[in-house]
């Protein structure tokens, strides 16, 4: 990701009062699986989508791997500390993928920010 874009993303996330995260799995033309992460913030009374990144999971996309992927990407690319993540993230949206919302094994049942 370009340094200017990364810098603007860090500034937007830093200035945001609350952040919502969206996670979705996509399949590329070569049939590889990727996880896309977006952050949504409010700027000037309008919701803005901020692309965090697309990541190819190493191995099986378990809930633990996805949690680590979200936390690492938001802290490394977005420049947020764990404390900021705990305070600002108010919502995590996922599609119907079982690994993401299973009651016992997915992000839904996993306390994402209890690190």
UniProtKB/TrEMBL annotation:
Superkingdom to which the source organism belongs: Eukaryota
Protein name: Uncharacterized protein
């Amino acid at each position: 990701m370009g340094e200017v874009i990364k810098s603007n993303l860090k500034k937007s996330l830093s200035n945001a009062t609350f952040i919502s995260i969206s996670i979705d799995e996509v399949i590329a033309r070569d049939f590889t699986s990727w996880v896309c992460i977006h952050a949504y913030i409010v700027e000037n009374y309008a919701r803005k989508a901020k692309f965090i990144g697309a990541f190819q999971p190493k191995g099986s996309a378990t809930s633990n791997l996805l949690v680590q992927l979200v936390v690492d990407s938001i802290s490394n690319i977005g420049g947020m500390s764990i404390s900021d993540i705990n305070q600002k993230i108010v919502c995590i949206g996922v599609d119907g993928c079982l690994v993401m919302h299973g009651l016992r094994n997915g992000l839904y049942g996993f306390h994402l920010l209890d690190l």
